[in-house]
Design brief:
The complex is a heterodimer of chains A (about 300) and B (about 350). With about 300 residues, chain A is mainly α. Chain A has helices spanning about 5-35, 35-40, 45, 60-90, 95-105, 110-140, 155-180, 185-190, 195-225, 230-235, 250-260, 265-300. In chain A, helix 6 crosses helix 7. The model of chain A has no long low-confidence stretch (mean pLDDT about 85). Chain B has two domains: about 5-105 and about 285-340, Periplasmic binding protein-like II (D-Maltodextrin-Binding Protein, domain 2, 3-Layer(aba) Sandwich); about 105-265, 3-Layer(aba) Sandwich (D-Maltodextrin-Binding Protein, domain 2), CATH 3.40.190. The chains are: A mainly alpha (about 300), B alpha/beta (about 350). The interface of A and B includes residues 52 and 261 of A.
């Protein structure tokens, strides 16, 4: 009686289309809800640093800059760490590699609010007492503007550090899978012609796995851009342009989480506009990533 | 056909669950409230005790003053709690009625090595200058001069304030606007403002947490939260030029001078009240209800709030809140509660 195949196909098609439709609806909804801000401030909203609910004047730059800097710090720290960890795990004895690998995977299972609590109760006091004084006083970095502000353990640097720990398992897992897929024969041949381990990694494994590595980076990037709870606990929630890496700042996601419940009128519209900017940013990064992989894929001879 | 057969047991099951529910002697009516987090500890004790005594269930969600009022306007709750009073015009515009419920104090908390609770004294000017970012170290002469008996360290001041929009911030910035022209002209008063310095914490507990974790921090919070977090409070200079400690008594002194009968719509900000013993940053927390609310619900609401004003007082005092004076309760009964009867 039923055309089982037909129904199955249709169910699958609807599910697939749902994702695309949802994406479109998100864009449209955010656009409509943020209309008031675009009409009032125009594109200047993105470049204005003023966020003042008393005078009803809003600008997105501090949140955008905070988001980009924390994400950049996170990638800067997580990328080399996960690269070397993945290299080790692939070549380590199976028993060691398995246990450590699962350990890193489990980092991804920790809810982000737990990272936030850990940041607030453990990491921030540690940063204030040891890390930041060491950087500023002992290494005399405080004359450089980037490390010049007063430090209290909260701010861009602590948030970036937490994000790095959070995205590390994602990047590491993907890198491990990619490294594992390097054909053993290629590696053996490299060793055979007298390459050192590092040369093998650099010329064979890295070249072979670049696509996967970048994929991991972009997954980490996406996660770091949108992370809310963990950042909110330690960033300081300051709607001003950060003076240095020690300064309190804010990210788009934490600004939204802090203010949405109480927002009204123009402020609500400004928050929707921030949401739209975040969506466009993540979307843009994904698009650039895909395009880059597409272009370099040909050059690397994959296709 | 097949799918129908498969679904039948589910439908029957769901129907049975609903029927089963209504069979139980569940409370006949539920009153939902939402709003200010400041008085939430008291409200939650009250709703629990009241639900135990009668047939009406009362819920209160601590979501913040502004969010509570927004929910009331959208009719998703029956009453709202707010620390940020609405003027009579604002109430009339949205068809709301407002009356005071409790008085409480906003206190300053510090985390300075060697400084215990009540030991530090801050003048009006020093307080405003700290929050304006003009005084940046604890051993500054402006602070040291009123604390000659204290050894203040050469430590950076970290201001901690609310990251979210809040009635507590409204009371505090209202006070700063009264004691400092510079604050009034450059920053102003509101539930969320453009803070010149400092880092933001989430709600009252967030501010307390940040202050307790940052050496050299100063923040403001509702009194109960400071007591619960065991943080060092600060004595402040009041309008009479005297240093007072934050206590239930000093909050009550401040509330006693207020002239409620002269304030339309019970709009009243209790900051910087006269009197030698008055705590300068005292706030009133309000209840708002809709004028067009269902008659039966309104009757139950009034019954509940009357219970709060009489039987609820002990619980409120235990949690460090000051009840509204007797004559004001009479005024509320006459002006708001009387409207239905």
């Amino acid at each position: 009686m039923f055309n089982a195949d037909g129904i199955f196909q249709r169910v699958c098609m609807v599910t697939a289309m749902l994702a695309g439709v949802l994406m479109l609806v998100f864009f449209i909804q955010l656009g409509i809800s943020s209309q008031a801000v675009w009409r009032e401030f125009g594109l200047g909203f993105i470049f204005s640093t003023d966020w003042n609910p008393v005078t009803n004047s809003y600008g997105a730059l501090p949140a955008v800059v905070g988001t980009l800097i924390t994400t950049f710090i996170a990638l800067l720290l997580a990328l080399p760490l996960s690269f070397f960890a993945a290299l080790y795990l692939v070549d380590a004895k199976p028993c060691v590699g398995e246990v450590l690998g699962h350990g890193i995977d489990l980092l991804a299972a920790i809810p982000s609010v737990i990272y936030g609590m850990w940041g607030l109760f453990v990491l921030a006091p540690l940063m204030q007492k040891y890390v930041q004084p060491f950087l500023a006083e002992t290494l005399c970095l405080k004359s450089i503007a980037w490390f010049g502000d007063e430090y209290n353990g909260f701010g861009l640097m602590t948030a970036g550090l937490i994000l790095a720990v959070m995205i590390l398992p994602y990047i590491c897992a993907i890198m491990r899978d990619v490294f594992k897929m390097t054909p053993a024969m290629l590696k053996e041949s490299a060793y055979g012609v007298g390459c050192t381990k590092w040369e093998t990694v650099k010329d064979i494994v890295l070249r072979y796995g670049i696509r996967g590595i970048l994929g991991g980076v972009f997954i980490g990037l996406g996660r770091a851009l949108g992370e809310t709870m963990a950042v909110l606990f330690v960033i300081g929630n300051l709607m001003t342009m950060p003076k240095s890496l020690f300064s309190g700042a804010t990210t788009i996601a934490s600004t939204l989480a802090n203010n949405f419940a109480e927002a009204d009128g123009m402020q609500k519209s400004a928050l929707f506009a921030l949401g739209l900017i975040l969506l466009v940013m993540s979307f843009g990064i994904q698009a650039i990533a895909q395009y880059y992989l597409h272009v370099t894929g040909k050059r690397r001879g994959e296709k | 056909m097949k799918t129908k057969k498969l679904l039948m047991p589910f439908v029957a099951g769901i129907a049975a669950t609903f029927i089963g529910c209504s069979d139980e002697k569940a409370p006949a009516m539920t009153l939902n409230g939402a709003g200010a987090s400041c008085p939430a500890p008291v409200y939650q004790t009250w709703t629990y005790s009241y639900t135990q005594t009668g047939s009406v269930t009362v819920n209160y969600q601590s979501v913040g003053s502004g969010a509570g009022v927004n929910q009331l306007k959208e009719k998703t709750v029956d009453f709202a709690g707010s620390d940020n009073p609405l003027t009579l015009e604002e109430q009339q515009k949205d068809g709301l009625e407002q009356f005071p419920m409790l008085t409480g104090g906003v206190v300053l908390i510090v985390n300075i090595p060697g400084v215990k609770t009540g030991e530090m004294k801050l003048t009006r000017k020093a307080l405003a200058d700290i929050f304006l970012g003009k005084i940046t170290r604890w051993n500054a002469p402006e602070i040291q001069s009123s604390n000659l008996d204290l050894q203040l360290p050469d430590l950076a001041i970290t201001v901690v304030r609310r990251a979210d929009s809040s009635g507590t911030s409204f009371i505090f910035t209202n006070y700063l606007s009264k004691i400092s022209d510079e604050w009034k002209n450059t920053i102003g008063c509101g539930s969320s403002v453009k803070w010149p310095v400092g880092i933001g914490g989430q709600k009252n507990p967030g501010v307390c947490n940040n202050v307790s974790k940052i050496s050299g921090a100063i923040g403001y919070t509702e009194y109960t939260y400071a007591v619960e977090a065991k943080l060092a409070t600060v004595a402040l200079e009041n309008s009479a030029g005297k240093f007072v400690q934050p206590t239930i008594e000093s909050f009550a002194f401040s509330a006693a001078n207020a002239r409620w009968e002269k304030s339309p719509g019970f709009y009243m900000v209790l900051t910087d009240q006269p009197g030698e013993n008055s705590w300068p940053i005292t706030g009133v927390t309000y209840i708002l209800i809709r004028k067009d609310c269902d008659v039966a619900i309104r009757a139950e609401l009034i019954k509940y709030f009357s219970w709060c004003f009489s039987s609820g007082i002990t619980a409120a005092k235990k949690l460090n809140y000051v009840p509204i004076p007797e004559n004001v309760i009479a005024l509320i009964q006459e002006k708001v509660f009387g409207n239905v009867n």
